[in-house]
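Good morning,

Attaching, inline, the backbone tokens for the sequence recovery test we're adding to the shared suite. The designed sequence is right after.
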């Protein structure tokens, strides 16, 4: 069993609804969904290119999937998660844009955001005391010999290569897409997502996800609002 802290808007947010339909699964309800029509891709093609991100649900990683230490409980984790939400402050993230990151497509901020980076740093640090050390197989899956020194150090110390200076906020929309299909997939992504990408996305809620058994889809265990900075200043 593994857990993760992800950002995803609430289930009724237009972006969340669009992304769940695109991926073919709602991470909150666990329901399989019919895929979009009229985007220039067949349902079979969509199923193929979204197979990897569908298992995780629509999200941006803040604290990467991890197992609990032997002496830690799910109740302790939920309590720590709520403490994280209470310690953080809500803020508007920059407008999200569709981008190709290596072989896959994702939503990324249109401009750098120190607030997003700080929130991810906070999530990594606050939940670290509950994380079990990686198993040898977990490290091997990361192909550690190929990692730059900073990412290898992060993997060994924090269980994930892409933290702190190596963190890049992104919300994955596809698995690997070959060069022959890239233009068609990008056009489909714009057709489906552009109507809900006009403005900034409010980072006002965090989600604790769970993978109940190895290899099964992640689902939302609980969500909690982030206390707004305005409330903090008047409390």
């Amino acid at each position: 069993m593994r857990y993760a802290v992800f950002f995803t808007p609430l289930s009724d947010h237009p972006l969340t609804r669009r992304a769940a339909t695109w991926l073919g699964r709602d991470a909150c309800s666990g329901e399989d969904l019919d895929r979009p029509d009229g985007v220039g891709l067949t349902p079979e093609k969509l199923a193929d290119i979204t197979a990897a991100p569908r298992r995780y649900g629509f999200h941006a990683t803040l604290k990467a999937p991890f197992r609990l230490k032997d002496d830690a409980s799910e109740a302790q984790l939920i309590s720590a998660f709520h403490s994280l939400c209470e310690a953080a402050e809500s803020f508007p993230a920059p407008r999200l844009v569709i981008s190709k990151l290596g072989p896959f497509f994702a939503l990324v901020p249109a401009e750098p955001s120190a607030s997003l980076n700080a929130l991810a740093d906070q999530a990594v640090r606050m939940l670290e005391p509950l994380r079990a050390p990686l198993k040898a197989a977990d490290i091997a899956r990361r192909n550690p010999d190929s990692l730059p020194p900073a990412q290898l150090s992060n993997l060994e110390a924090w269980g994930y290569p892409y933290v702190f200076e190596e963190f890049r906020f992104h919300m994955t929309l596809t698995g690997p897409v070959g060069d022959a299909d890239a233009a068609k997939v990008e056009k489909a992504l714009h057709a489906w997502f552009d109507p809900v990408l006009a403005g900034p996305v409010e980072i006002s809620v965090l989600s604790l996800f769970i993978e109940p058994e190895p290899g099964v889809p992640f689902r939302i265990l609980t969500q909690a609002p982030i206390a707004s900075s305005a409330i903090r200043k008047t409390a």
